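Take a look at my tokenised protein here and describe the backbone shape.
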Amino acid sequence: MDIGIVNARHLDGLKMLVSFNNGEHRLFDFATIDDSYPVFAPLKDKATLRQFHISDTLEWCNGSINIAPEYIFEHGEPVFSCNEKATPFAAEENNSYGK
């Protein structure tokens, strides 16, 4: 399956929470984008960053700026979803609580 973006939300500063078509979520900080790519310079402005459009990828400025979903997926920080199953903590054998 090709990875695509299905939802995104600006959080704070230059960070966005991005959801993918495989059910995973990533926290992506646009401050980490390499400054040697001047096309992405406008994304260092919060007002511009908030004006995105989703079309399997994130786009700005009527599509003249976009970032591949694979890049955001690979470089974003994985985020736990409430819909995912959590691994329970193992019970301690020598529980000393209440002693």
